[in-house]
Amino acid sequence: MLKVFRLAFVHFDTTDVDRLVRYYTDVLGLSVTRQDGDAAYVSTSIDHHNLLVTRAAEAGVRGFGLQLAPGISVEDAAAELGRLGLTHEVQEHPTPGIPSWVQFRDLDGYTVYLFSEMEMVGRGFGARGVCPNKVGHLSLRVRDAKQSVEFYKSFGFINTDWIEDFFGFMTCNRDHHVLNFCTSDRKALHHVAFELRDYSHLVRSMDDLGRHQIPVLWGPSRHGAGHNIATYHRDPDGNMVELFTDADVFIPELNMFEPRPWHEQFPQRPRVWGTDECITRWGTAFEQSLV
Ligand SMILES: [Fe+2]
């Protein structure tokens, strides 16, 4: 069986590479490890890249890279994809920083890159801008969240929570969610989320956004599923960006989350949430368009 252990990078298409990279560097505080022609490689700290930005006719999320658990090679992954009946392609030196990957399209046509190794050539954390810990999770609009959740179980993902039957949360490590899927009538990004260090960092991030005249669309407030404290804004391409902290820590061995004082249940286990109880635990007004 396939097993991945982290979301390593998100692949964005954009009509204006320079403009999008300027936002992710000047506002979010990431660093460019390489930019050549129509591609830019952007790092949160030490990875070669956590964002791959390529020029295209239309902006949006193209796909994402998942790193394979130790001991699973790209060739092993390709063989397993074959067993799953998925058309795939192994590529040597597909991009700087990654020696090889196997790529395939998932149920909705998002490109998934599975790889074993990524160079660590990033420059550490910057001194200006938000400077998040990492890309925390990626939320995608899909035709059928139930089907997507079942599909990604084949890659070692565990379903941690649901909002009713249309928003499924999945993890491949101890983070409450690494991928989530929202049933939708269109294929598009729902949001990409960056993890911050603590509450004070979240407040400072809003000052950073304010300095750049970027409005916070919603939050901060604590969610139900995941219990993360989150804010949302948009990057220059209109991609929704979540900044969050304090998300639940999953203990797969016990099928529960590490206890926290704000939990509703002890032990807090994966469950189905109603929409209203999940969007905010603080009673903060929210915009239905975010769901
Ligand atoms: Fe999120």
Main beta sheet, described? 9 strands, mixed
CATH architecture of the largest domain: Roll
Q: Assess the beta-strand content as a share of residues.
A: 35-45%
Instruction: State the CATH superfamily name of the largest domain.
Output: 2,3-Dihydroxybiphenyl 1,2-Dioxygenase, domain 1
Question: How much is the radius of gyration in Å?
Answer: 18 Å
User: How helical, in percent, are the residues?
Assistant: 10-25%
Mean pLDDT: 95
Number of helices: 5
Assigned CATH class of the largest domain? Alpha Beta
List the strand order in the largest sheet. 14-15-16-13-9-12-11-10-19
CATH topology of the largest domain: 2,3-Dihydroxybiphenyl 1,2-Dioxygenase, domain 1
Net shape: globular
Protein described:
The chain has 291 residues and is α+β, with helices and mostly antiparallel strands. It has two domains: 4-115, 2,3-Dihydroxybiphenyl 1,2-Dioxygenase, domain 1 (Roll), CATH 3.10.180; 134-282, 2,3-Dihydroxybiphenyl 1,2-Dioxygenase, domain 1 (Roll), CATH 3.10.180.10. The chain is 16% helix and 39% strand. The chain has five helices and 19 strands. The chain has helices at 17-27, 74-83, 145-153, 199-211, 275-279; strands spanning 4-14, 31-36, 39-43, 51-55, 60-68, 88-95, 98-105, 111-115, 134-142, 158-163, 167-171, 179-183, 188-195, 218-222, 229-234, 240-245, 250-251, 256-257, 272-273. The strands form three sheets. Strands 14-15-16-13-9-12-11-10-19 form a nine-stranded mixed beta sheet. An eight-stranded mixed beta sheet has the order 2-3-4-1-5-8-7-6, covered by helices on one side. A two-stranded antiparallel ribbon has the order 17-18. The longest helix is centred in the C-terminal third of the chain and has 13 residues, at 199-211. The mean pLDDT is 95. The site of fe (ii) ion has 5 residues, from strand 9 and strand 13.
